[in-house]
Write a structure and sequence with these properties.
CATH class of the largest domain: Alpha Beta
Number of strands: 15
Distance between the termini: 29 Å
CATH superfamily of the largest domain: HAD superfamily/HAD-like
CATH architecture of the largest domain: 3-Layer(aba) Sandwich
Strand order of the largest sheet: 5-4-1-13-14-15
Oligomer: single chain
Helix content: 25-40%
Number of domains: 2
Shape: elongated
Order of helices and strands: EEEHEHEHEEEHEEEHEHEHEEH
Radius of gyration: 19 Å
Length: about 270
């Protein structure tokens, strides 16, 4: 039995956990969501881990879910490349994330041979001039391969502070190779629409919860989805001065049950007045 009213899209890093540390109250909230029979999916721009690795992380923190509830740019990209009949790709992702690309012919590391697509995800500290320049050289081939971005997150909150994510490297490659990337993660509207299709709910009956004012809040709102901003993860007070306005602000996801019940009561009161 699922909730007939609304469904949830929930970001992972910065909302449920930060690196290997759980956000206080997050697991309790996940159990509350299940107890309330609220339909939900986990939607993340994480491109450094496979979907199976993310599932295992859930299990390690004491919460079990189905692997199909986890939506990542890697899964969306693999499906999109197959739909476009793109068979070969150069991957700029961490080794542990490459398993979700098993259907593709992967160009060997260091090779600059012909390829149909250049897929760029989170390489973290593995980025250097040689690696970025290899991606550039591949994109300069004729015909030009398609550049695929596994999300367009600008930065994330690591244990050592804010750290660059995928978007800055994509922007550098777009400028140098004079091309436009296909974005397969947040804030792409098509990525959110794919999540809505899997949920089986229209946009106006779905709430997104995230810590990124641009990728989570603005991206969801552009797709017609209500968006809540949590004050954990990469959140900074200056986000509140942005032109992007969240539909709700929570100290953390631990406050979701109270916010949810308050919204239900407000809707009920309006119904009685009418």
């Amino acid at each position: 039995m699922t909730s007939p009213d609304r469904a949830l899209l929930i970001d992972l890093d910065g909302v449920l956990y930060q690196e290997n540390k759980m956000i206080p109250g997050a697991v309790d909230t996940l159990h509350w969501i299940e107890a309330q029979h609220i339909e939900h999916l986990f939607i993340t721009n994480t491109s450094s881990k496979s979907r199976l690795a993310l599932l295992e992380k859930f299990q390690q923190i004491g919460f079990d879910t189905e692997i199909d509830r986890i939506i990542t740019p890697i899964v969306a990209t693999s499906e999109w490349l197959q739909q476009k009949a793109i068979r070969s790709a150069a991957l700029f992702v961490k080794v542990e994330a490459s398993t979700d690309f098993s259907a593709l012919d992967i160009l060997p590391a260091e090779s600059e041979g012909p390829v149909d697509a250049v897929v760029v995800g989170d390489l973290g500290e593995a980025w250097d001039y040689q690696t970025l320049n290899r991606a550039f050289r591949l994109l300069m081939q004729d015909p030009q391969p398609v550049l695929v971005a596994l999300g367009m997150t600008r930065y994330w909150q690591s244990g050592g502070g804010l750290s660059l994510d995928v978007a800055p490297f994509i922007k550098a490659l777009e400028y140098a190779a004079d091309c436009q990337a296909e974005v397969m993660g947040k804030p792409s509207t098509s990525f959110y629409q794919s999540a809505l299709a899997l949920l089986g709910y229209p946009a106006h009956r779905v709430t997104m919860i995230g810590d990124d004012i641009a990728g989570d809040v603005e991206g969801a709102q552009r797709a017609g989805i209500q968006a809540l901003l949590v004050k954990t993860g990469k959140f900074r007070e200056r986000d509140l001065a942005s032109s992007i306005k969240p539909d709700g602000l929570l100290d953390s996801i631990a406050d979701l049950p109270d916010w949810w019940e308050a919204q239900k009561n407000t809707a009920s009161n309006r119904s009685e007045v009418n």
